[in-house]
Prior knowledge:
Elements: E1 12-13, E2 17-23, E3 29-35, E4 38-39, E5 43-47, E6 57-62, E7 78-89, E8 95-103, E9 151-158, E10 161-172, E11 176-180, E12 190-194, E13 201-211, E14 217-222, H1 226-235
Antiparallel strand pairs: 1-4, 2-3, 2-6, 4-5, 5-8, 6-7, 7-8, 9-10, 9-12, 10-11, 11-14, 12-13, 13-14
Amino acid sequence: xxxxxxxxxxxxxxxxxxxxxxxxxxxxxxxxxxxxxxxxxxxxxxxxxxxxxxxxxxxxxxxxxxxxxxxxxxxxxxxxxxxxxxxxxxxxxxxxxxxxxxxxxxxxxxxxxxxxxxxxxxxxxxxxxxxxxxxxxxxxxxxxxxxxxxxxxxxxxxxxxxxxxxxxxxxxxxxxxxxxxxxxxxxxxxxxxxxxxxxxxxxxxxxxxxxxxxxxxxxxxxxxxxxxxxxxxxxxxxxxxxxxxx
Length: 246
């Protein structure tokens, strides 16, 4: 697993049927049925017989439990584009592929080149995505954010009691993060954020609420206490952020 995707909590061993659809480098489509080895909120791993490579985009369909979904909570099968992040050989000669869920929408350029290879902004030789290039109005910033995926827990206190959910970051910096959510949160609210084990808890101000092209709601969070946020990231298993992410 690449350094940018290390997590404190291992993926849960779970065996579910997975339909995998992909494309060869020349664009020819293929389809394969397999079964997962393990799953998390942000990705999964499974055996794959068809030729594949790191950076390849796949379309997965699987009956995932609700707590592993970002959307389509009531659908029988959960469909998500996924990015191949690693592939390893087993003692039997087969290969286990590790993927990161991308959501309903594939990367830009996928329709024109479905058999291409795609990189994250933090990958070697990948062009750095500067702050504000993909940010919605109201989220312009001087420093870039890094596309890191960290499992967190959100808590919101309301008139009907405390609401909470497990989520994952889409990107983050030392002072802020963008996270997926299903909570009824409004701009300007302060919510509590912790690692999954609630080892570290800190407050975050909701700077913006918006719905992405995949129809999933996101929160842009600002953490006034940057040291507390750094302790939170450490408790969640995130490697230290580079100075230019400050």
